[in-house]
Amino acid sequence: MGSKAERRIGLLFVLPAIVLVGLFRIFPLAWGFVLSFTDSDGFGKSAFVGIDNYVAVANDPAFRDSIENTLILIATLPIWVMLPLLLAILIHQGVPGGKVFRAVYFFPAVLSTVIIGSIFNVVLRFDGSLNAFLKAFGLIPVDWLGNGATALGSLIAVQLWATFGMSLLIFMAGLSTVSKELIEAARLDGAKPVQIWVHVIIPALRPIIEFVAVVTTIGVLTSMFGLIYVLTAGGPGTATTLPEFLIWLEQGKMNQPGYAAAISMVLFVVMAGLAYLQIRIMSRNANL
C-alpha cells in the first residue's frame, strides 16, 4: 500500500476518466431509466406512468418482431464463429498466399457501416449487380432487400462479411499460442492431422472460441444500426428491425423518448447479462 499522498496522486490521474464515464455513461443510463417511467415527448412536461411503457413494450408487435429477428441472428452464431475459425486454420496451415488472404479478409473490418451499406445497396438492389449476374446465367432475379423472406438473411450475410475479419485475427493469434510440444506429442502417438485439430488444437482454443462467441453476440445486437439504416431502414415492414433500430424509430420518428427509453432498458438488461456471461467465461478460463 502506498502513502496517502501517492493514493491522492493516483486518484488525480484516474479522475478525468471517472468524470467522463460518469457524464457520458452513468448519467445517461440513469436518466434513461427515469425517463422510461414517464410519458415524456422530449419537449413539454412529463408525467409518471409507472410500468406502462414496459407493458406497452411487451405488447408491441414491432418489438416482438425485433426480438424474433434477434433470435434468428443468434441462431446463426455458429456460422459467425466457425467461418473465421476455419479460415484461420487454413491460413495457419500455410496455404499459398495466406498473408494476402488475411489482409483481404480483415479489410472490411476497417470500413464504416455507411460505406459497406452503400456498396451492398448497389450489389443487392433489384437492378443491382448480383441480379445482373444471375440474369447472365438465365436465373430469375431476386428482390434481396425488398422481400421479407430474403431481407434479413441478406443483412446477416453483409454484416458477417463486414465483421468476421476481426474474429479471424483473434483466432490467428490464438493458434500461435497453442503448444507445439503438445502437437508434436500427438503426432508421435500416431494422431492424424484431423485428430490433432479436433482433440488437441480446438480444445486448446476453447477459451478464445467462447470469447469470440460472446463478443460476436454483443456486437450483432448493438452494432448493426448503421447497416440497417442504409440498406433496409428496418423493412420491408419489420423484417429487418432490431431493438436498437426500433429505439431510434420511437425516439426520432415517433417522438416517444419515454417509450424508447423503456426499450433501451430492456436491451440494457440483455447486454448486461451477456457481459456478465463474458466475465464469468474469462474468469473461468483464467483459472484453467
TrEMBL record:
Pfam families: BPD_transp_1. It comes from the Bacteria. It is a multi-pass membrane protein. It is found in: Cell membrane. Keywords: Cell membrane, Membrane, Transmembrane, Transmembrane helix, Transport. The chain crosses the membrane at residues 12-34, 71-91, 103-124, 144-171, 211-232, 258-277. InterPro entries: MetI-like, MetI-like_sf, UgpAE/MalFG_permease. Residues 66-278 form the ABC transmembrane type-1 domain. Belongs to the binding-protein-dependent transport system permease family. This is Sugar ABC transporter permease. It comes from Rhizobium mayense.
